[in-house]
Fold these 2 entries.
Entry 1:
Amino acid sequence: MKKPVLFLAALAFTVNVFAQHDVNMGIIPAPSSIVKANGSFILDKTVVLVSNEVNNAKTADLLNAFIVTKGGFALREAKSVPGGQRAIILTSKGAESLPKEGYTIQISTNQIKVTGSGPGLFYAVQSIMQLMPEKNADKITIQAATINDFPRFKYRGTHLDVARHFFPVSFVKKYIDLLASYKMNNFHWHLTDDQGWRIEIKKYPKLTSIGASRNGTVIGNYPGTGGTDDEVYKGYYTQEDVKEIVAYADTKFINVVPEIEMPGHASAAIAAYPELSCFPDRDTFVSDKTPWSGSRKGKHVQQTWGVFDDVFVPSENTFKFLENVIDEVITLFPSKYIHIGGDECPKEYWKQSPFCQQFIKDNNLKDEHGLQSYFIQRMEKYINGKGRSIIGWDEILEGGLAPNATVMSWRGESGGIAAAQQNHDVIMTPGSAGLYFDHKQSASPDEPLTIGGLASYAKVYAYDPIPKELTADQQKYILGVQANIWSEYIETPAKVEFMLLPRLYSLAEIAWTKPSNKDFKNFSEERVPLHLARLDQTNTNYWVPTAIGQ
Ligand code: TNX
């Protein structure tokens, strides 16, 4: 994590010069079109900030707050342009004819006129912020130009696993800030897993009093990451915390997609309520199929990584439990989508359980895969009944897709291709294409401990989320693209930042920018260094690009 400090500091001073020469004016993700003109707009304290629609006031304030940090002055805000005065004008008039989430910025010597509405205006302001240098200056020069911009995909997501390691509210907000700066619009919050249940559910207090704590992580199928058997690792979000985060994300036009895992990855819930297991009296087994040693009798939150046999039993009691959990989740999250996991559900306990075998017969299911499909379909019906839609990992294809499900394709692209061919919406997040940001970023021996393979920012950049196999009609089902940050080996906020950046920049560009505007040379040489230099100002950690293993 060594940083070439001098090099970056030098860049910081020349940022404006760089940004002006660059065809993309330093903006990430690259806009749809930029046409430069002669001259520049000088932003100083005589400029007036005009926004005459109520809805735009927040975005105007955001821009002004940013200018305070850059220029040390706030602009006077007004409802119209005082005669002859130089101004930044934010307006939604004319935005109806723009593409969804799109905007235009017209920069001349006497004004910057921004047109957009809601997210569009917000994204325009993100672009304007990127046109400013990161050093304080009482006069900021912005090159004259016309920028027209809109996204390629409507779903632009980044995920964070807070189950394997917990991250505090303050960091989740900082994470959301980073996503918003790069025009991402969905935060997929992985809230439950074998190693922790991280969201307060009032009806089931043991989910957090028991399910949110584990002993140190020391054994398992991968090398451990610290902690001893005597140490307790814990953390969860109260419902107030959740509301605060969802409301915060909303101000940044980010939808929060909660994930409640089922029927697998359920050990933390089972530790809290053993009756949710096929075998409530069986001790928790570790991943190599050996029971806990010594005094560890009964059910436990897992303290190793991996995939575990002890999954939800498909009893009426379990469905009632999950429905009650979903009821509380729905009141907290306005998201159209509720993610219900569906991945990596071993069928071993279902095979061994007489109850499950009888259940399969009674419901005329083919086998355990049929049971997985039944489980997801039944929960989908419940969630659809509440006016929401489900997302599941691509294992939900097993035994037949739930009728309205959106599929997240993580085991390569094949699940996504199959789902699109069945007219189902798809979000592409294939690990093989570099979208697993828990993988390492280069082949250097200095990389910190990670899981999985190599996902360099160049590899992420090269990915096109639309598979060639799809017909033009089927391509419409690709809603967008997402990167995932699983946190088995990510113990601290600083390491999340390190794993996220600069790969977030590549992700943003494949999610937003049209393929014909992509240019890795311009991206990596002109723009990424500028953006990384800015991170030094906000005390944000990142991976320093090297030539190794890209
Ligand atoms: C697979 S991706 C998982 C996660 C792990 C991840 C590690 C997916 C749906 N399941 O449980 O954390 O691999 O890369």
Note: Residues 1-15, 218-224 have pLDDT under 50 and may be disordered.
Entry 2:
Amino acid sequence: MTRHTTQPIDGQKPGTSGLRKKTSIFMQPDFLENFVQATFDAVGGVTGKTLVLGGDGRYFGREAAMTILKIAAANGAARVIVGRGAWLSTPAASNLIRQRGADGGVILSASHNPGGPDEDFGVKYNMSNGGPAPESVTSAIYDRTQEITGYLKLDAPDPDLDTLGESTMGEMVIEVVDPVSAYADLMKTLFDFNALRDLFESGFRMRMDSMCAITGPYAVEIFENRLGAPKGTVTHATPLPDFGGMHPDPNPTWAHELMAEMMGESAPDFGAASDGDGDRNMILGAGTYVSPSDSLAVLAANAHLVPGYKDGLKGVARSMPTSAAADRVAEALGLDCYETPTGWKFFGNLMDAGRVSLCGEESFGTGSDHVREKDGLWAVLMWLNILAVRKMSVAEILTDHFARYGRNYYSRHDYEALPVDLAETMLGDLRAKLGSLKGTQTEGLTVESSDEFCYTDPVDGSVSEGQGFRILFEGGSRVVLRLSGTGTQGATLRVYLERYAPGPDGLDRDPQEALAPIIAATEALVGIRARTGRTGPDVIT
Ligand code: G6P
Ligand code: ZN
């Protein structure tokens, strides 16, 4: 039977990055089927269309892929290009959609959230430009989930997703492709692989922690096979359904094994980690942590050294809570610099319109217009290429950068799982006094201005309100506060702290110490600890 009757299921509203739920919820009868049929309906059907399908290898991914193929076949799709084993990193899926001229793609991932039967699963639809569906599409999907009465699903045996090549399911062609090769080939067009091979041949030591998630096979192929890095350079290189129990989020808290190695006595020259689906990155040198905001600024300043960007950048964009370090580089290079709300999707229009080629976020996301997703391994290769050309260590590159542009000391403090009411009241109170803060003196700092960020997209004119609170202090320091849009438990308050030091003195302080006055002023103005009873943040990046 092809047509199955169903009824709407609650809780199918896609968030920042598709639909993310506990795996057990996705495994309920009809849950995935309803959502996928609603997605196909919302994009005008898939009859005659070509789609890309794959995910980060987490628990339930393969079964979900089988189901989606049967729904696509029954809905008349012409071809689905699937990564072998239902594997594709998010940037590799974005690349395949673009390279193969596909009409769209389905990515099976909950990004940096843990995986397994008791953890998270997710489904995301990407458009023909390779980027995540915009809000107009995700809300159409949601509307459709609320009125759905049936879905089409072919009654066919499970296809073989482990053998490369074409097969058919009904009228539809299933094309199983190597998940890695097209992506690795794309990287070869952007970076100087000869220089990188020489770098590794000269004894340069790197540690890549793929955190038992999807970048493992990509990193092994690129760093070890193609660039000659010693075997074992990539650790946790096999994607596992539960990520081996790891929480695949590349930050100092969750990538603690890598942190310990890089801060230890015999640290390699360079270290990096990526997340579940391979779009996030963390960059480290021996004894050195590079904040994502500084990473973006360094990449902007040095991009011309990398073959793919040798003619210069079109422009740079960062999310509002990301530090202004990149702005200083853009100003020096005469580049346009855009400040967008949190969320990679806001960069898509700017890239499609040819206004920017480099984008980054404080949340460990960096990327360029080579795809329409952020790209973890791309960021690692950017750094490697720059290190190879400049023949300096990560620490030396940072020191040199700060000496030239000054340093934007930066840190993010997260207060997780707060009662939603409490968090909302606290920010509501802040909203109420925003207008009266100007000129206020607190902890030796004077408020210069304060507002709630509102973004007008320069390409399509759409307006996004309520995108975070900003308090600017005289002298270039600021604090930004917003509630996370991706948390799954209660409310997560993110406090982004920034202080500019022009130099030449005071460029090598400990960020927490340099930011202490702003932390104290924030407590005086907002009363986070006083109101929540917490003694400090749960996560510091
Ligand atoms: C996802 C998006 C990022 C965004 C991040 C923000 O990872 O892909 O573009 O920066 O969420 O998360 P938050 O929890 O701060 O809303
Ligand atoms: Zn991710």
Note: The two ends are 52 Å apart (CA to CA).
